[in-house]
Each structure stands twice: as structure tokens, then as C-alpha cells.
Amino acid sequence: MEKLKTPGLLLDIERVRRNAERMSEIALRNGVRLRPHVKTHKCVEIAKIQTAGHSGAITVSTLAEARAFAKNGFNDITYAVPIERGKFDQATEIVQSGVKLNLLTDDAETVKALNEAAGKAGVRFDVFLKVDCGTHRVGVEPQTAEAIEIPRLISDSKNLHFAGILTHAGHSYDVRTKEDILAVARHERDVMVGLADRLRSQSIEVPTVSVGSTPTMSLIDDLNGVDEIRPGNYIFCDNFQATLGSCSFEDTALTVLTAVIHKDATRRRLVVDAGAIALSKDRGPVGLDPSCGYGRVLDLEGNETGMRVTSLSQEHGEIEAGNADIFERLRVGDRLRILANHSCLTAAQFSHYNVLENGSIVNKWEIFSGW
């Protein structure tokens, strides 16, 4: 690994496969469809691992991702960000290419405009209602009149098909214990099953109830009434997930390879060439670990050093060594690995993964970026 360009991504493919198998088993055990969120990695090879033994359906966060994966054989895609009129043309082109593209909305005026645009283009869109189950980012409140009115409007639209209801329990990242995660997971399920029952009582067909975040799906005990789950981060995990308890540190599959570019023996401080662009400035699980910094520092074999990345500028990462024994052995030019706080944001900064298997680099996989 001394010859690899730094900073660069190291992907432990054995851990990726184990993580994929674990979530696959959860889906199969609960009798739900697995539609993994590929924004975590934006990589065709990894998506194929995730969807093996399943339908091949995926979730994306950008229409650029949708186009890239469609070109590589994925033809059932959910674009999991509320659609707005500036993206109607892009969505139309994807549908016209033969891809089943599911959209979502929480806005009645957008439904009307989308129906009109679809009619002019001669296409039909599948549209989910985005539901807020507690994150309070986007989505309709499940007990409001809108939660009935918008699905009815979609169902009555000539050029739209009501695909169902969809939510994401993003607030599961804000809790402190596994018991808290499980409570959020149960609430996510119950809110959605309750809304589906309410819609059906109003003679509105609900084809799909779609839920899922990595924390909630990792710990959920029962998914009765749910049709589909959409976790994403589980395939890599990261410092946040492991600290939260959604996974163990032995499950974390993605690290950043970095080089020491400065050693300050007086202050027992290191500077590496992985800065904010390489690691992102995600604050991490500060509520659970106030000293988490911007990532855990591992040695070249992936072992914990006890050090953390404490400060970031654009291309510099500063590490306070404290009493870490490894500090004395390190020299400028030596390599370290950093387990970043948020693997999704970190992976998005790079062009490819260096695939690691049995201690050797065996492949290089492309990352598709853009919007």
C-alpha cells in the first residue's frame, strides 16, 4: 500500500460481503423487499453485491446516480429526494429510456405540475408520498389532512401512479442507546402502517409501505405491515454507526489511507494529507463520544491506535498523539488509515475504491458522482 496515492479509499471487501449478507438476512427473515440506498458508495460493483438474491431494485439520492446505474443494468430505481419542477426533464429522460423510476413528493402543487409535464412528455410516473416519521426534514405529518389529500391527488392524476408511502427515520442517528434505536424503529413502522391503514380506509390503494435507515433496520424486531426497506450505510458502516451501536467496529469496511506529512515531537502532533475534502467535516457521534474528532486513526493493518483526527483544514488533518505508543515509531511518509465519521460523505469525495482482500489490493472500482 506504500505505492497507493494518498489520500485514497481502502475497501475491505470481506467486510462488505458480511454486511450485505447480514442485511439481506434481515429482509428475508421479515418478508420484506430490500431496496438498498446506493448513495453510500455510488458504485455498481457494490450495488451488485447488495442486491444479489433480491430484485435488483435500488435507491439513489441524485438523478446522476440514477442515470449511471441505469446504464449499468439497474432498471428499478427510487429517487429518494422530493422531486421539484427543475428536475422534471431529467426524470422524464430516465423513464423514456425504459427505467422504472419512482419519485416522491410532499407537495400538492408539485403533483399537479408533474402530472401536466408527464402528459406532455407521454410518460407515466410512479410517485410516493414522502412521510415525516419524526426527522422533521421533509415529508408530510402522518396525521394531517395532507397525508390523505396528496395520495388521493396522485391516484386521481391521469399520468401518475400512486406508488405508496415512504419515510426515513433519520432521527435514529440522534439517540444514545440500542433501546432508543429500537424505539425509533418501532415508531417508524407503526406510523407508516397506521397511515397505510388510514389511506386504505379512504379507498386509496397503498401498493408499498417503504421504510428504513441503517440503525432502525439493523435492530428492528418486527416489520409486519411493511413491504420494503431502504438502508444504505450498513454496507460500509463508519465511526458514527459503530459508536451508536448499529454495528461493531469490526464491521466497518471503509477507511482512508493517508500519509504523514509532518511530525511535531515537541507537541506530540502529526499532520496527514487527508483533510476536510478527503474526510468531510461531519462532527460524528459527539453526543456519545465528545472526543471523537473527525475520525479514528488506525495503523496500516487497521488496528486502533487510540489517536483521533482533531482538526481539519482543506488538505491537512491534524492528529494529537497523546500517549499513543505508535507516535515514536512514525516518520514522515509513513501511512495510516482513518475510519471516518460518515462513510457516505467520505466516499463521495473520491473517484474510486482500492479494493482490499486478504491484505492485498485486488481491484479498483469506480465511484459515480454528480447531480
Written description of the protein model:
The protein has 371 residues and is of the alpha/beta class. It has 2 domains: 14-235, Alpha-Beta Barrel (TIM Barrel); 249-366, Lyase, Ornithine Decarboxylase, Chain A, domain 1 (Beta Barrel). Helices cover 31% and strands 24% of the residues. The protein is built from 11 helices and 17 strands. The chain has helices spanning 13-30, 44-51, 63-71, 88-96, 108-121, 146-156, 178-201, 214-219, 239-244, 276-279, 343-347; strands at 8-12, 33-34, 58-60, 76-79, 100-105, 125-131, 160-167, 208-211, 228-229, 254-264, 269-272, 296-298, 304-312, 317-320, 335-339, 352-357, 360-366. The strands form 2 sheets. It has an 8-stranded parallel β-sheet with strand order 2-9-8-7-6-5-4-3. A 6-stranded antiparallel β-barrel has the order 10-11-14-13-12-15. A hairpin with a 4-residue loop joins strand 10 and strand 11. Helix 5 (108-121) packs parallel to helix 6 (146-156). The protein is elongated. The model has no long low-confidence stretch (mean pLDDT 97).
Write a compact overview of the structure shown.
The protein is α/β, with parallel strands linked by helices and 371 residues long.
Helix and strand arrangement:
Elements: E1 8-12, H1 13-30, E2 33-34, H2 44-51, E3 58-60, H3 63-71, E4 76-79, H4 88-96, E5 100-105, H5 108-121, E6 125-131, H6 146-156, E7 160-167, H7 178-201, E8 208-211, H8 214-219, E9 228-229, H9 239-244, E10 254-264, E11 269-272, H10 276-279, E12 296-298, E13 304-312, E14 317-320, E15 335-339, H11 343-347, E16 352-357, E17 360-366
Parallel strand pairs: 1-16, 2-9, 3-4, 4-5, 5-6, 6-7, 7-8, 8-9
Antiparallel strand pairs: 1-10, 10-11, 10-15, 11-14, 12-13, 12-15, 13-14, 16-17
